[in-house]
Write a structure and sequence with these properties.
This protein is of the alpha+beta class. The protein has helices at about 1-25, 45-60, 90-95, 165-170, 190-195, 210-220, 265-270; strands at about 30-35, 40, 65, 80-90, 100-110, 110-120, 125-130, 130-135, 145, 155-160, 175, 175-185, 200-205, 205-210, 225-230, 235, 245, 250, 260. The protein folds into two domains: about 1-145, 2-Layer Sandwich (Fructose-1,6-Bisphosphatase, Chain A, domain 1), CATH 3.30.540; about 155-275, D-Maltodextrin-Binding Protein, domain 2 (3-Layer(aba) Sandwich). It is built from seven helices and 19 strands. It has an eight-stranded mixed sheet, with helices on both faces. It has a seven-stranded mixed sheet with strand order 3-4-5-6-7-8-9. It has a two-stranded antiparallel sheet with strand order 1-2. About 45% of the residues are buried.
């Protein structure tokens, strides 16, 4: 894992450059289109993808890149692969909101081993390798470390996720504690859990490997888990072109168990998974 720690400063700078780029584009000539699957895409997605790929290829020419906005190559999954979302949370981005991010992860043998998430308008950068996690405040381009905290028993459990599920998830209880539900876009949710600002992320429906790989590293580096709701085991990735979608999952901090959340998030998945 030591080698990947040495890669992190490079990934950090690339993610931040991409973040500056997409912010500048939104202030200027933003162009919005629609993909064949009906999802939103902008010139910022594409230009960020080009920037990230160019810098990754210059720094790590032998490492393949699986990106949301480029053709997926055939890869040897036993070796490192970059997994990139050049603009996660495009809908928030287009709507003038702040919850978008740049995600760069490294996956080997189906599991993420290192990653960086940059959330430019929240002025937050998260990075992790192995059991090391660090959050930064990036105000004015400075990198100020942010201390993480591990609440032993908060007054209420903070669950992050989609606004579509606010009513149901807000009615849950955790060991008789009320649940506060916070809606956020993009991989910011993973960083919040790793930093200790939130406790659980319940995600029914489909996400893609580039949405979650970097974030999963953050959670696991802090002793938490990202659980595949089909296999009930650690979320694993298959980087073949037709296998990039994730099952429903639950991401949680180290001090919280899904069994104590009522109703169970896994039962919840069966009720609403088809709605997403």
């Amino acid at each position: 894992m030591k080698d990947f720690e040495q890669w992190i400063p490079v990934l950090r700078q690339i993610a931040m450059q991409a973040g500056y780029l997409v912010c500048d584009i939104r202030k200027g000539k933003l162009q919005v289109g629609t993909k064949s699957d009906g999802s939103c895409v902008t010139n910022a997605d594409l230009e960020s993808d080009q920037l990230i790929r160019r810098h990754l290829q210059a720094a790590f020419p032998s490492i393949p890149i699986v990106s949301e906005e480029s053709e997926v190559p055939q890869v040897d999954q036993t070796k490192p692969v970059f997994v990139v979302d050049p603009l996660d949370g495009t809908r928030d981005y287009v709507n003038g909101m702040a919850g978008f991010s740049i995600n760069i992860g490294i996956v080997i043998d189906g599991f993420p081993v290192a990653g960086v998430i940059y959330v430019p308008l929240h002025e937050r950068l998260y990075e992790a390798t192995g059991n090391h996690f660090q959050a930064y405040d990036t105000n004015n381009g400075l990198m100020t470390k942010i201390a993480c905290h591990d609440p032993e028993r908060p007054a209420r459990l903070t669950v992050v996720g989609s606004p579509f599920h606010r009513d149901i998830l807000s009615s849950m209880e955790y060991n008789d504690m009320p649940v506060r539900y916070v809606s956020h876009g993009s991989a910011l949710k993973f960083g919040m859990i790793a930093q200790g600002e939130a406790h659980m992320y319940v995600r029914p429906g489909t996400t893609m490997v580039w949405d979650t790989a970097a974030g999963q590293v953050m959670i696991e580096a802090r002793g938490g888990e990202v659980i595949d709701c089909q296999t009930m085991s650690r979320l694993r990735y298959d980087l073949r072109q037709d296998c990039l979608a994730n099952a429903s999952f639950v991401a949680k901090g180290a001090k919280f168990t899904c069994e104590e959340l009522q109703p169970s998030p896994f039962v919840f998945m069966t009720k609403v998974g088809q709605q997403v």
